[in-house]
């Protein structure tokens, strides 16, 4: 029997709830895009032209015409046809290094927990050395020869192959978090061009006919990521600005705007998958987003992406109690979010400056309101009106909080993204005023969070991990974490 989950398609981060196998009823809005023809071409190329979508196993498709490399938690896919291109093969190699960097940073976060990480770190270092030594031309030759497994195709020596298998097992089984689970993989499918991405959307719509009304529509021209079951398909190009409405092939490299934009984009999608894999339903989407954005900043010194920080990718249930008052669809951000005032430094300083400025202005405008640290100024879409929002913003203490009027919601979503990212960074580095002690508590907190069964346990996990300190209270007192964070922010 098929199981389905929450599928997230990001560009505008469209959210789709996948249900049981029901024929699509949405009107056809795909006249300009030959979805059915592209799906058939992909299936014919793999000798699957006679397959029945209602009995078809998606894993069979991704086993056939794809180059695959197990890189820790992730199985990195690219079609053999795309990987045969030397430039696209070079991007494949860069993404392998990026995924190793994300996982290396994750191990740094967990190191203070006392878990012995010497072997996985040694394996990761060996894999990084191996990955740095390969070139796009070598990868392209493996793909041209019809190779499926990158390590085998490149003739990796026994020790490199052993390191890859051992590191994949360590990351997949979540050993460092103390979880007892099987070998859970996170497949990431890289689509170098817009046409590659659209072909994969076409296949997904064929393989899951009940989704055609959602997938086979013109809006997918702007998407940058979607799931089909557990396979996360990530575009390495953005849809080109100013293209004709009927042009669904024209794209622009993610590196055109930022020199390492492609690496940052894939890193954030990978960080989202990592957090979702390890914490699942035990973590609210906004906290998951804060963790993922911080991982990217730790790797690159900034998070200059076209991905919002929230996670609702494959969940049938996602309890949001970490930053109430955000948009109900999980914090989907407006088109211009990447150019907002909140991202002027792209998180390089964890948004401290812009948050402190908004806090100062909020306190000034809330002179007659009790408390000075919990008020923040936000602005409307036209930037000609201001209003004050007031905390607490975290956990049960903020439950029932109302979001601002519609014209302020874009800036409010950006504020919440910055707020939770900064709070997570403070939690990891600055509680108790002792960075090393803070890192130890944070590593233990991640282990306790992974063991929790639901986001409803979040308050108890905070209480147990931070010496009895509550996550937040209505009074934002000296003894709760949010109150301490706000007082710290004011002093920066």
In percent, how much strand structure appears in the residues? 5-15%
- Domain tally: 2
**Spans of at least 5 consecutive residues with low confidence:** 1-28, 325-333
Which strands sit side by side, in order, in the main sheet?
A: 3-4-5-7-6
- Briefly note the structural class of the backbone: alpha+beta
Q: What is the CA-atom radius of gyration, in angstroms?
A: 23 Å
The overall average pLDDT, rounded, is: 86
Counting DSSP H or I runs of 4 or more residues, the number of helices is 17
Largest sheet: 5 strands, mixed
The number of distinct β-strands equals 11
Task: Indicate the percent of residues in helices.
Answer: 40-55%
Order of helices and strands: EEHHEEHHHHHHEHHEEEEHHHEEHHHH
Shape: globular
Give the N-to-C terminal Cα separation. Answer: 55 Å
